[in-house]
């Protein structure tokens, strides 16, 4: 996209991916700029879009959306590699790559860097200083050297390659898995050809890897190829303790042979050893007898940690995953991989962390039980990114258990006042989509109240207003006559809710009964999460609802993983149960404050007795329902008292 800066390119990608409007405020939050800057960017993008007869439509009420008759032509223009880094994070990343690619024989020129990156000398020098501090703080440090206008880095080749790989792979880009994005770093078609070498090698060895791991391997190999061509081969690496039958060594030899054929480049034994070590950091999936060497005695430690985690979950949450062998095998393999990676790599980021915490908070909280177990056995403190990966395994196991326990006799009654043809079409679509999991009955007339109640449906799907069906006393979902994607999402939510009722212990009373007048705080003036937690905890302790260490354990939970949910909602709670009474304290701040990776203004402080931990999922459902409803959260923030607040809460 010629001349279009990276942030504007990301804005355009975002609008292309959406089928509808997006608020300017949301774009500003994602791009970490002000709404005014977004307006300026939109104006600039519109000038560029004239060349393809497209434009971004603006609405004071709705926000922005992409329009035009030639939208299909935009996709090919997104990958021409002429990005201009705008944000501080982008500048730091690009500057780091440029400096790591430079050495004494091929240095960078600071004047040229200043011009190419569109920054002042002060900004450039500030970036260089920060990168210098980061490089020198590593266990195996790199150093920035300067002579006049020339600047370069020096240090171990292994460290240089690893850091280059971490910087080149930009996980903040929603399209970072697109291999075409990396042509600028290595030359046109080099990443694609390297990808073919890797995929063919995996096929030959009957091994599979995750897409993200494949990308990291391809980029690392592309860096290896580039450095070898520049004359920087590894020397003096030995094949210690690496048996010929070791799958990492065997796979490295297979890849090296395909690289030789494709690029006319031979890896010496030292480069082969390095490749085998890198492969040991990835999760190789295949025939276990071939994909992994015979387990070492330490395997029992991994199994112990996994078994204790599942016991904790069973005892605390009444959720039995102990018979899920797929979960156990996956976690054991992941823990082995994690320990290897932590010993060689700096802290990693988890691209799905916020989604996990927002959409599956209960599952994420279950993963916290691994935190102490892991430290006790291995002496390693896991961060929230690592715990997030554990949560994905637990989430898959919960999904398997839900499917196993889901009844085939959910009954959905289709009720409509539409004409016969439309009614039949809607019912037929319902049966096609949901017939394998539920009984679909109907269509019924809106007047067939007695017949519908006799059926005892789980819930009703209707094209009419809920008021019209007020005499039918079961949950109702209003949909469009053609059952669009939005309707299906709403139905899926209800089905998921019904499955959860079968899976988890349900609250013995309405969630609204857990709120207390003395624990409703309106217009709180605080600056930090710590101040909020301290103030709200003191009230819980004073009223006799919590132990004296409640605030300490809540802050410990925040340090392990922030309890921000998005949409200005946070739900702080202790890392372990220490409440005398199960209650929810509400804090409405006078303005949003920074909280973890976002901002919070509506605070639900959760105090749960040990024996009530089995209900934790029901409490998290509250935030899951609110996180996507900006209007409802705004109304809750405007509540002046608890009665008004509870009236505005959704019925869960």
Automatic annotation (TrEMBL):
Gene3D superfamilies: 3.40.50.2300, Mannitol-specific EII, Chain A, PRD domain, Winged helix-like DNA-binding domain superfamily/Winged helix DNA-binding domain
Keyword hit for Transcription: yes
Domain PTS EIIA type-2: 513-652
UniProt xrefs under InterPro entries: BglG_antiterminators, HTH_11, PRD, PRD_sf, PTrfase/Anion_transptr, PTS_EIIA_type-2_dom, WH-like_DNA-bd_sf
GO terms of biological process kind: regulation of DNA-templated transcription
Domain PRD: 297-404
Keyword set includes Phosphoprotein: no
Superkingdom of the organism of origin: Bacteria
Keywords of the record: Repeat, Transcription, Transcription regulation
Protein's UniProt name: Transcription antiterminator, BglG family
